[in-house]
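Input:
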Amino acid sequence: MDFSQLRDEAKEEYNSLFETHQPLILVGSATCGNSAGAQETATAMVEKLEEHNIDYKMVEVGCIGLCYVEPIIAIVKPGKPWIFYKEVTPSRGEELVESYIINNDPLPEYALGTYGEGIVEDIPLLFDLPVLRPQVRRILRNCGFIDPTNIHHYFAHGGYHGLKAALETEPSQIIEKLKNSGLRGRGGAGFPTWLKWQLCIESDDKTKYIICNADEGDPGAFMNRSLLESDPHSILEGILIAGYTIGAGKAYIYCRAEYPLALERIKHALNEMKEYQLLGENILDSGFNFDIEIKEGAGAFVCGEETALIASIEGKRGMPRTRPPFPTTSGLWGKPTIINNVETMASVALIMQQGENKFGSYGTKESKGTKTFSLVGQVKNTGLIEVPLGTTLRQVIYDIGGGVPDGRQFKAVQIGGPSGGCLPEQFLDTIIDYDSLAGAGAIMGSGGLVVMDQDSCMVDVARYFLEFTQKESCGKCVPCRLGTRQMLDILVDITEGKGKDGDKELLLNLADAIKGASLCALGQSAPNPILTTIRFFEDEYAAHLDAKTCPALHCKKLISYVVSPEKCTGCMVCLKSCPVGAISGQKKEPHLIDLQECIKCGTCFEYCRTKYDAIERTSPPQEGK
Amino acid sequence: MDEGVQEILSLYQGDKSELIPILQDLQSKFGYLPGELLKEVSIFTNVPESELYGVATFYSQFRFTPLGNKHVMVCTGTACHVKGADQIMEGIERHLGIKDGEVTMDLEYSIESVGCLGCCALAPCAMVNKGVKSNLTLKDVKRLFKKSKKC
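Output:
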């Protein structure tokens, strides 16, 4: 098979999408887009186009990362740049068909930005938008621009060049390239990738395995999901390169079952690879044989830990074990095994495609390259971003994220998932990389960034994380199994106003023991959210413990919902919406909430907030009516 | 039921490492893991029933009771949590008259709180069967399940 010819044909095919008289519509169809209604929008647009007998092309693409304005559609008319549109509901889609595709009014008020050659009046360049300008999209370079179910699109964008180059390179030289690139594992631990591979190569065992960890379990993180759905081949290419380098014959992709679209896209991609001699025997005529199998996770967060993951593939309970021996020496079925995160694999492919120097030209001295992050929570521009390591939290949250919406105050950013920490305002100028956050007691983790505002109760946040790690604890070791349970019980008491003197000290004591003695990183890092919240939000703990109040007005047992008589117009909406009939009152007269009956569900608060804002939460809780 | 199990087992070799995929296929077919079928899986894979149950109960994906026709999975990930997932969950429980982990009497709906669905930018989210519903509010709860028969 002539690889150059294949690439040229693929480029021709991709470019032909833009070189005809037909308008091209690209529909963002990753999970975010679909859940926001992209499929319904696509159907509506197709119906409208067919109604007018318009010849068109429609391609489903992946996620461009601007999740806060999904569904996103791009329209490309012959000779014009791409125009990306935001929040395209079915009716807006129909409007765009009539106004722009059929006529020539591009409706700038609905547009996000343009991409490609040419300017459209009143529409900015897409990559000039404040949310995109600071970003450096390398891992995400194809996401939102190619059809993830068409391998030709991947070929057309340099796909599998890295593999081709690798197959013509000595494994030791590939290791050298990785070393020079400075790539560190993107799953959270940040272990130098070249070293992990080197340790595996050194083993004499003829049977070796590659495992790609796609068990992205950190709540708030979806970087891997997005990449799996939007550019699956970029990961598969990295896996092949890994297999070739260490001399493995098989890889397993361990992907969470909660990612059905990602699994579907990977399965499809594997079938495509077989058609092009990229999987199976004699890959690209090199003599290299390799196979990839998918294993679905079954809902255990702990299986993101490498030894637990291995146990799961072997058909056992996902319980970690002591190390050494490390998987590089004795892993899956006792054989030398490399386990790398999805993004690490994609980084490997990128390095072999575009060179280690380009990769290493971004980032800091010890943390090279770019990293994807999921920026979520109380921030305007929620979505998936990619920035050079060394970017500050402030740049991410304010420049890219647009800050906290609705005029509310920033309180904290949770970074690193349940293993990480909650950092307050004074740390906003800290750079994000593998090491700089350690001083604050946090870790970069796999890349989840959850922004919290004044309405978040930090004691409750700590409780929330403990509840999570407690539930996910495998139960094998005492410090984690019992320690996290004790911590959780204490925190629940504090959030319910039952905290006692000495609780804080006890929490710190327990945290120390659990960190020091747990078998795996789940237990060792479980106390981190408690440690950072106690350290930086001591006043909130004091309020809960001493004054039995919740300053953020969140903890149910410590608040009451009351109607503000001056603001209430007597519209009766809250009365009708109350599920337990706790609100009484006549039309046009201020209503009253019976505090004995009130279950503090928040329904009335939600209904009234945007209209009259006449329902308040007060703390400490009140008595009576 | 027996035929269904045999059909699934015929796709595998009987190796212990196939245990989890077999259980996943069984659950995909029947909606849960019927106890009477697990004995056959135990014989096929040569994994003692006690160990098999140890594996099946370890992973939260596996259920031992049936689901409703519409299974609602409410995401309790961090982003959803800070955007009010707790209240959404309570709202759904109230509306359907069942608690987390239960199924309605008419077997139409079941609820489960799940870990992060990975749709964090559009929090709070829930999955109803394979579809993701995002940016949920308490108003949406009534609208989403308006055709249900509450028990």
